[in-house]
Write a structure and sequence with these properties.
Layout: H1 2-14, H2 18-45, H3 61-76, H4 81-115, H5 129-145, H6 152-189, H7 201-221, H8 224-259
Length: 269
């Protein structure tokens, strides 16, 4: 909810639908504050914990949502003045929180994958959020690098943001072959049938975000090879979107055909 609202708000802001965009970004920020504190608090105080065996890629949506707030704040930040300083501080702070959350949650996921038995139905497409979370973190970092470097918080953050973003982009790139191998193991070697489900969209978003983040980071840092790579990365993301969308339409058509036409109730005289 938080990430989707923030991303839509950012896109509308780029299209100069500013009033609607700011409302959506405000809603995303409120949702992030509420969920970001309520969920961990409830987990800490509940006695019925499920354990690390249930950890999966969806946990990283916390990171994606946090970086969505950072990216949106950077976009709407005034270039100068007290408001600009405050917005830049929020953007840098939430970016840093997202990076720390990524390290912590990734550690838990790796412990789960390396120490607990993995069954095919557990190695699902949300694990692609491992890469997607790095991508949106790089995008958020790129937006910070585009802010006015005369602002004190931006000037202090630039070296850390630039280096960490490069590190995250490198790690996200490294994970792609690993995630592909996990999919081959699940569907080809273990015979788990590939069928449409809403979780498939968790594959599409990371691919698209990876392309956008690569292009933005390459542009802001002057790394031309990243900009060139982004043009190639776009096509697998588009292909994945088309395939998943087609699968969704086919699935919906089957569901509707099973229901059949509605029968009118007989009228009593």
């Amino acid at each position: 909810m938080v990430a989707g609202t923030a991303v839509l708000g950012e896109r509308l802001y780029e299209q100069r639908v500013e009033t609607v965009a700011i409302v959506l970004l405000a809603l995303a920020a409120l949702g992030w504050l509420a969920l970001g504190y309520a969920v961990p608090t409830l987990i800490v105080f509940t006695s019925a914990k499920s354990g690390i065996a249930d950890a999966d890629g969806t946990w990283l949506l916390w990171v994606v949502a946090t970086q969505g707030i950072s990216t949106g704040t950077s976009m709407v930040a005034p270039p100068t003045g007290r408001a600009g300083e405050a917005a830049a501080a929020v953007a840098v702070t939430t970016w840093a929180v997202g990076v720390v959350l990524y390290v912590v949650l990734l550690t838990l996921l790796l412990v789960r994958l390396l120490t607990a038995p993995a069954r095919p139905h557990q190695v699902t497409t949300p694990y692609w959020i491992i890469m997607g979370a790095t991508a949106i973190s790089v995008l958020a970092g790129s937006r910070i690098l585009e802010l006015d470097r005369g602002l004190p918080v931006v000037r202090l953050a630039v070296p850390v943001v630039e280096g960490t973003s490069l590190l995250l982009w490198s790690f996200g790139t490294w994970t792609i072959p690993l995630l592909v191998l996990l999919g081959v193991w699940r569907h080809l070697l273990r015979g788990d049938r590939l069928a449409y489900g809403p979780q498939l969209w968790a594959l599409v978003f990371p691919l698209g975000m990876y392309s956008v983040a690569t292009a933005e980071f390459g542009s802001v840092t002057g790394l031309q090879f990243l900009t060139d790579m982004a043009r190639i990365e776009f096509w697998p993301a588009l292909a994945a979107w088309v395939l998943v969308f087609a699968a969704m339409i086919t699935w919906l058509a089957r569901v509707m055909s099973r229901r059949g036409p509605r029968r009118e109730r007989p009228r009593h005289p």
